[in-house]
């Protein structure tokens, strides 16, 4: 379906009936369909219209509508249709690096699995193997900042990655305020706890 054929009233429909269970279900399903087809590389399905599909107004409205609900998803639980969320997230980050155009909503979706309550492997992926993504994560704030901070990071590898990102200048306060706060927060807590233990 090309963009000119998409219903122009879909965003209006969501606005008029935001509390309908059907709309929530459709929204969630369309988001999942979008993520799987556009980000996981299933480009020949006819369901996507290019790598920048997420910038289409109607799709962006759907992503915004379900974003707050997805921040509460426990990614440690099995997700139907995915054999490995880590592989999915790795593809997602690659897609982000390629076509994000600095989009703030897209950046928030990348940060979402990096919350402290999620598995540390998602944080390791972005701060380590996919560290090139750090340069593009330039958000000044995020709705779940407290979940990115929280209690001290106890994973030694993550602490090394935070330290390296700051010392190498890959992450800077003026360029990536959210990432800078995350790294400094956990390294400060580690330093304080180390002094108490001595």
TrEMBL record:
InterPro entries listed in its UniProt record: RPAP1/Rba50, TPR_RPAP1/MINIYO-like
Pfam family, one: TPR_RPAP1
Span of domain RPAP1/MINIYO-like TPR repeats: 50-187
Coiled coil: none
Record lineage: Eukaryota, Metazoa, Ecdysozoa, Arthropoda, Crustacea
Protein name: RPAP1/MINIYO-like TPR repeats domain-containing protein
Organism encoding this protein: Notodromas monacha
GO biological process, one term: transcription by RNA polymerase II
